[in-house]
Fold each of these.
Amino acid sequence: MYRSHTCGELNLKNQGQTVTLSGWVQNLREFGKLTFLDLRDRYGITQVVFNAEENQALYEKAHELGREFVVQVTGLVKERENKNLNIPTGEIEIIASEFSILNSSEIPPFTIIDDTDGSEELRMRYRYLDIRRNPLKDKLIFRHKVAQLFRQYLSQEGFIEVETPVLIKSTPEGARDFVVPSRVNPGQFFALPQSPQTFKQLLMVGGLDKYFQIVKCFRDEDLRADRQPEFTQVDCEMSFVEQEDILQVFELATKFIVKETKGIDLGTFPRMTYEHAMNTYGNDKPDIRFGMEFCELNELVKGKDFAIFDSAELVVGIKVEGASEWTRKQIDEWTDYVKTPQVGATGLIWAKYNLDGTLTSSVNKFYSEEDLKKWSEKFKAKAGDLMLILAGEAKKVRPQLSALRMAIAEKLGLRKADEFAPLWVVDFPLLDWDEESGRYHAMHHPFTAPKPEDQALLETDPLKVRANAYDLVLNGNEVAGGSVRIYDKNLQSKMFNLLGFSQEEAEAQFGFLMNAFKFGAPPHAGIAFGFDRFVSILGGSETIRDYIAFPKNNSARDIMIDAPSRLDDKQLDELALKVITNR
Amino acid sequence: MYRSHTCGELNLKNQGQTVTLSGWVQNLREFGKLTFLDLRDRYGITQVVFNAEENQALYEKAHELGREFVVQVTGLVKERENKNLNIPTGEIEIIASEFSILNSSEIPPFTIIDDTDGSEELRMRYRYLDIRRNPLKDKLIFRHKVAQLFRQYLSQEGFIEVETPVLIKSTPEGARDFVVPSRVNPGQFFALPQSPQTFKQLLMVGGLDKYFQIVKCFRDEDLRADRQPEFTQVDCEMSFVEQEDILQVFELATKFIVKETKGIDLGTFPRMTYEHAMNTYGNDKPDIRFGMEFCELNELVKGKDFAIFDSAELVVGIKVEGASEWTRKQIDEWTDYVKTPQVGATGLIWAKYNLDGTLTSSVNKFYSEEDLKKWSEKFKAKAGDLMLILAGEAKKVRPQLSALRMAIAEKLGLRKADEFAPLWVVDFPLLDWDEESGRYHAMHHPFTAPKPEDQALLETDPLKVRANAYDLVLNGNEVAGGSVRIYDKNLQSKMFNLLGFSQEEAEAQFGFLMNAFKFGAPPHAGIAFGFDRFVSILGGSETIRDYIAFPKNNSARDIMIDAPSRLDDKQLDELALKVITNR
């Protein structure tokens, strides 16, 4: 028996007991003839005392200890003189009567404390040491808790967790697959799933009307910051349901989890169409913890000889409340921001509704105070507010203004980590047009059903067709997305055709699904939560890496284990593969 | 809204209600002016009646229906005249007032009934139809339930489920890895985990002292019947524990699951050393639902001029109670059985303790009735029993006799699917000797700790070293296995050395673990349940395929989706790979 208690549970009630603890040396302090050892495990820290006057040999042996040594200590629980009321064990200490060193430790490359000195690179290389720190450990435990709650809720609602295969079939459509060569079938490959989409639809055809799975998915993308090649989804599907059923079930699931983990009652989630979100926030995943909705000025600003506005498809701005006092320098910084390549605007126009009631702007030459007054009415601005305006092509200027809105909110502290603003975005377009390939792309995926009332437009104006597709947005992040699926084989066939699949391609890639649809597919719909993202936002962070035990870095490498790596020639040979080196 | 109720819940209490059901056409029957439709969903079957006298149009429309059509029906719940008390809904029927065909169906390739006419091949190709059948559907739901219970129990015990990576590093040691080429790092590969072994040990180094994960693992083996290239483990690890702690925690977990799912209290699990299991059952995973323990006869049979026994290293038999009346033909069948190539014995000796008290044998020429009397005493045989005896090299004859024991038990119905006999097998050897490669192999894996009391033997007689390794056996199947781990870097290093790793190889493959051991690794131990096998045995079957939603066939192919398959040249090119075709 290595321990009778953990390092997080002893208190005054245990006074007088002889206990055994095991853990790591957090800290050692000398005070004359006393050595104080802070012993740490997953559950907390307990102070251990070695007293030279009581046990000289033990006291001396304690000098062999160093930080992160693994130690087993036996001793008497005693009330402390100098109590530390910040920790649960702070009223007691252990007077050591025995101890043994279970393992030694080299000096760790960074300190195992909440605010560590280690760089992210260093901490990823020694991830197992980083996990000893409370912040990371607590995040992993939080993730576990959220997963448990999800499973508990869905199971109670009659959902069945079904494991779908990981070794599946590659489909050139969509993002790039990771592939797995088959040794037994030389020259053939499995793919790792980007999602269990087709399998969950087959389960619906199979009559399992409520499915879920918390499941690893894989996407071989060129990495952007905070994207992982392997990620976790809470994947769900239901039969004999409409969009409304899905929204209700998963709104309740989300409310349950937030209530259980954060103690917050989220209330009914607002809903917004895709079109409204794009027009009002320039973004299909608006952060609605704060205002700064878009205000379109086209009808007020045209024809005043200001070429930039006159030539613009869209003139649109946001109002920053109480910011009329911002200095020229402050506004210039935002102008510089919108001109950065990642935002890509050419300039920023401002207008102030000053506290004294006057109105001024960066385009005074073209617009009178009376003009500005009309602007401010459109903005519903009041004295003290600042209006920031961008102009240009609508589909460029909206994301630019969205970026500005988010950056200002971030700066002003309006994106509060402990405030949660969920939102359903609905009525996404079914298709968009990809200039590069000169063909339609499915906005969600090729299995998404058009709205019945828009179905006729598929023939005449496909881009106008809205889908029964929906996203759950939380604090400006898409945390879940889904759709009502096509379950009619003819409509599915038409869809593949519209997306530029030849009959042969559709058959080769999705023949099994089309075939399944011949045998009585029920109406069905589903949703998938991006679990890494969902957990990190609930945890108050937008860095998903912190919520993954062993993440890859931004080059898709695991720098701790040093993977990927080269194979033996023998392994390659067995797989009938040759690496091409002279590309 | 597609339905107000499911097809499994209506009964006399719902009489007079107007309800809407959705489901599949199980069956259609005509009786004069009435059409009876059995409507099926996941929850059951409800009888729907179309009455020509009440609604001629609807009655006629019902003739469009065929088996497996998807239908929505609205109607009144009425008490049935001919009640079917075998099903929960059998006292009522729905008098249809409205219905619509949600989807049609071609005639399915096999009938969707419990005892279907489909071959296994056909049912795997149309797995989504097979899942509509109760036997398969119920097994998937049972699997879900066992997974939920496992998670519930371990979470309550303070275990944290941590997701470890799927894209890891290939290690030539052990079974073959599936590998994943990295596009971003041309010529380099990830491997899919055979188990999260090293990661869970790193989590222990990271201070998370109770870890579990229900996780997919992968092994590129030449398939044997009922092995899957991807399989699921309940993977567990604990810190500051000894073997005894692990056995207790996971015995309780297993008891909990069996109690909750089967209502059976298993009691305390017996324990047996590896040596005892091998000597008594010829097998390290004995089925102890029945007896037929091995009885060694060496000291009784030698020196009687029977060359086969005289030259044998081991003469060993089993007693079949009440089988003395077996005919010559029956015994010959077992002789043929032990001579099959998969068993590989050269012959079978028998001796009967006849009901009249006489003793006879197939070796009467060499052994007198008095000799046979002594045998029967050793066997503790009584009148009416049959003794079956094999002779030869010990390490061959034990598995042969084990096979015979199992086959006879199967034939006699002693392997009862609803009886559960758990058993801990402990004290496995640390190493065995691989003739082919001429070196030691780790019996469990290279991270398993030798028993401290045997550690000195590592230098002098490594094959004598016992490990702190253990298996949980259930009904003759290994359902879980684990060990106490090495946590000392020097011992781990010595172990790699003993297993024939050069320092460089050990460093290249397991450097990250050796490195982690420098920073205060705690004592730790773990276990992993083969979840597919565990669930299938609990479910009363030994066919794991039935408990996997979408299994691969015996050639490691998914014949439903037709995977693996060839890649586009473009995909291969991006991966810097070429398939070698002229091998």
Amino acid sequence: MIQTPYLLFLGDAPDQLAAKVAQGIKDWRPDNAVGQFRMEGCNADLGLKDMDLAKAKAAGARTLVIGVANRGGVISQAWKKVLVQALEEGFDLASGLHNLLRDEPDLLAVAEACGQTLHDVRVPEVDYPIANGKRRTGKRVLAVGTDCSVGKMYTALALDAAMKKRGMASSFRATGQTGILITGDGVPLDAVVADFMAGSIEWLTPDNDPDHWDIIEGQGSLFHVSYSGVTLALIHGGQPDALILSHEPTRAHMRGLPEYDLPTLEALRDTALPLARVANPGCEVVGISINTHHMGAAEAERYLKETEDRMGLPTVDPFRQGADRLAEALASL
Amino acid sequence: MIQTPYLLFLGDAPDQLAAKVAQGIKDWRPDNAVGQFRMEGCNADLGLKDMDLAKAKAAGARTLVIGVANRGGVISQAWKKVLVQALEEGFDLASGLHNLLRDEPDLLAVAEACGQTLHDVRVPEVDYPIANGKRRTGKRVLAVGTDCSVGKMYTALALDAAMKKRGMASSFRATGQTGILITGDGVPLDAVVADFMAGSIEWLTPDNDPDHWDIIEGQGSLFHVSYSGVTLALIHGGQPDALILSHEPTRAHMRGLPEYDLPTLEALRDTALPLARVANPGCEVVGISINTHHMGAAEAERYLKETEDRMGLPTVDPFRQGADRLAEALASL
């Protein structure tokens, strides 16, 4: 559990895209972001107040979050100066970088000396149990995709926002590094040892109030041969009551697999639903989220309508339209 | 890769069942077993020559394999004396125990001093790649089960023996600790990090001669919610040309999951085959292996015939009948 709120470290981000983790935090959990810390040469700007460490501390920030992809996979000396000082000023550090904070001897030593915590959210910090498959109270929804990176996390976060707006009880449950940094908690599922994958998701989505919804962040795809096992563990550990099908219509092949075509939404439904019903016989597919980022407005509208008619399910682009109709579908379940 | 042949360490095994790893090595790779080492109080006997370390060394043994489940999860002082001496005499040690050899400071220190290797086969020793899904040359067969522990490893080993007897080119590819100790090599799949599961199986079953068969040891079950993700990674990483369905007919519920019924063989076929065809569109179900251990001879025969008629596939109990008919089915593929 990462202590909130955060000061978002943008470092020397070469452009706005390099700061997309910070952008996600600001967009989805603005209360978690008291300000941004930018170094000389930083070309990203979240529109938050620029703060130095002392100001951020005074504003209540407890963790400095590295919200930027670094250049060359190395934590530079220029960054180090800020990170060390942050530890000395009483901040924890949190990062989703491949190169771990804990592997930097200076950061490790200073953190220990100052009694501060280094959170490398790519690395599991919990001994997860083996899944026991027992039915849990409360409700769960999971987005499953025709491919990786088709907008499952965005769908889940938009759904969480739409449900809260309707007054429904919901929790976004992060299963990847960006989601974990956004919410401060979660399971880095792709780094969990095979035997404990499903158990980690049971742990993440425990018994809850009967009308509470866990919105579980999806990972991979049943049709992506590199990561399909992770997806099935998520389906069986999450035992969802509802599935949302996610798709990106303009993709020429499965991400990173030029020899593999994307499945149809029908194939995804017919594969995912019977597997989900092994763990939860009452599971239903309730809606479809389409990532129309690479389509014009008219083309997107046409595609959404055609898909909705064909599949007989509420079909939205949560980025263009929000996820109200998906929340509505869950409310009536 | 564990150096063969082995001296099989039975320690103070309370009964024959406790020595089942050693029994598996002796049954399936008799050439790997030059002798057995029994301590006072050992009640197991593999029918191999009893040897002390010097005799085994002279007979060519290179690794002392702990072929016995230890009591209480601790490597006892009585064992230690033998293990330390073995290292000093130039043996490597290999073990599938939960408590690792490398976590014993004395064994670690002596192994380092003597330049010998400690193999804990529960722990991956390779940095596996992420799966790339590219089609590989050679052929592959995988047993998938209605449940865990229904005889998939036994089926694979029996099939390997039957294929070799027919003069077919085949390799048993171990994916669990017992299989790894039997053959000296393999992937401890349940201990691999999620993102690398499918890649580890691609690594295990690389390009091969067009008529060579990799017989991949199955794990878990698509219907076992604790481990289904491991099974799907095996199917997509292995990209099998042929599946064998494995079943144990007398089981009242899924192993360790009292609330879960076993699926039918039809459900297993209809779930596993479409998923396998994502990675290998030519995949076929070629046969069925039934574990009739808990049935009388007549009942078993009836069950096998009824299943064969119903499913239209060669159906055998490899323990009672061998796997010749499964090998035949593969030969005609």
